Amino acid sequence: MHGYTAEKSSHLKRLRRIEGQVRGLQRMVEEDKYCIDILTQVSAATKALQSFSLELLDEHLAHCVVEAAQKGGPEAEEKVREASDAIARLVRS
């Protein structure tokens, strides 16, 4: 069971909303909307993805990493390394 399982339906709802934002961006380009308006919507979609990412990371830390840390050993080290790498990717994006 993954850390996000309890919130799966909520996560899927958020992702569908983000998908709708991206489809809206495609429509805006197809309809030759003003560049700044498109960029504003890109910013909103980006922020929504970042927010989703942080929530998923929080759930991963609270569930997967904590569980592995309680067991100890190489699995714990691997989960901490994975989380650290994920945080680094999020910071760079």
Automatic annotation (TrEMBL):
- Give an example GO cellular component term for this record: cytoplasm
**Top-rank taxon, per record:** Bacteria
Q: Note whether Nucleus occurs among the keywords.
A: no
Query: Could you tell me where this protein is found in the cell?
Result: Cytoplasm
Q: Which UniProt keywords apply?
A: Copper, Cytoplasm, DNA-binding, Metal-binding, Repressor, Transcription, Transcription regulation
Offer one Pfam family short name for this entry: Trns_repr_metal
- Annotated Gene Ontology MF terms? DNA-binding transcription repressor activity; metal ion binding; transcription cis-regulatory region binding
* PANTHER family cross-referenced by the UniProt entry: COPPER-SENSING TRANSCRIPTIONAL REPRESSOR RICR, TRANSCRIPTIONAL REPRESSOR FRMR-RELATED
UniProt lists the family membership as follows: Belongs to the CsoR family.
Q: What's this protein's name?
A: Metal-sensitive transcriptional regulator
The species this protein belongs to is Kribbella turkmenica
